[in-house]
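HUMAN: You are asked to prepare a plain-text protein record giving the amino acid sequence and the backbone structure tokens, both parts labelled.

ASSISTANT:
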Amino acid sequence: MKAIITKYIPATDSKGSRIKATAEGVKSLSIPYPHELNFEEGHKLAASLLCERMEWKGELVSGGLPDQSGFAHCFIQ
């Protein structure tokens, strides 16, 4: 089973804020922070886009990480 971790990355001098989605064994994906969405919805979007790119199918369930740095997303079986 794959777990996707999403984390917020603050803006720098050269890049705007973004959300990075990672999963073991695949190339990570970063998206510009979607200001039109709330914090959790933005993280779900990044996880969904990584699933789409990898052609992973299924419904995701999400939960916050203990250190409040982002979210973990896992597939429901």
